[in-house]
Amino acid sequence: MKIKREQSVCEWADVEPQKPEAGTKLGIALSTLGKEPINGLRHNPENGTNGWYIWCGEEMSQDDDFFSPLHVEHIEEYLPEVKEYLDLPPGYRFLIDGKNYEDVWFEQVLLNA
User: Fold this and answer.
1) Alpha-helical regions (H) of 36-108
2) How far apart are CA 76 and CA 72, in angstroms?
3) Looking at residue 5, what is its pLDDT?
4) How far apart are CA 51 and CA 110, in angstroms?
5) Where are the domains of the chain?
6) CA distance 108 to 91
7) Residue 98: which residues within 8 A CB-CB, separation 6 or more?
8) pLDDT tens per residue across span 88-106
9) Cβ neighbours around 47 below 10 Å, total
10) What is the per-residue pLDDT across 57-69, written as a single tens digit (0 to 9) for each?
11) Non-local CB neighbours of 3 within 8 Å, separated by 6+ positions
């Protein structure tokens, strides 16, 4: 799938945007930067987080130290290409590969975790 650039990601997915609150944190797997594809999933926000977890590569590790906290305002320094996806509401995932492949989908299980 490919999002038409005249649409926002949320318009393309036909969902109401839920922008992460300023000052909230997301989880980012810094050790995976530079790999493809780029994956993101969003749980419900809680305890100062906005629910986003982002990693690069095929596999997400279950190790406790896989994700590092990062204020949402700093994502552009690490993965600027994901910024437009962060308005997707909780329960959504995305996958982009840097070669014109984009996918966005909803997974109810993310809201139950």
Assistant:
1) 75-78
2) 8
3) 62
4) 10
5) 9-112
6) 6
7) 36, 37, 38, 81
8) 999 999 999 978 899 999 9
9) 6
10) 999 999 989 999 9
11) 9, 12, 102, 104
The mean per-residue pLDDT over the stretch 48-74 comes to: 95
Which position has the token pair 């997400």? 60
- Length of the chain in residues, anyone? 113
Asked if pLDDT for residue 85 goes beyond 60, the answer is yes
Q: What is the pLDDT of residue 79?
A: 97
| Cα(98)–Cα(62) distance, integer angstroms | 25
Q: Cα separation of 58 and 23, whole Å?
A: 29
Give yes or no for a contact between 87 and 17, defined as CB atoms under 8 angstroms apart.
yes
Amino acid at 31: S
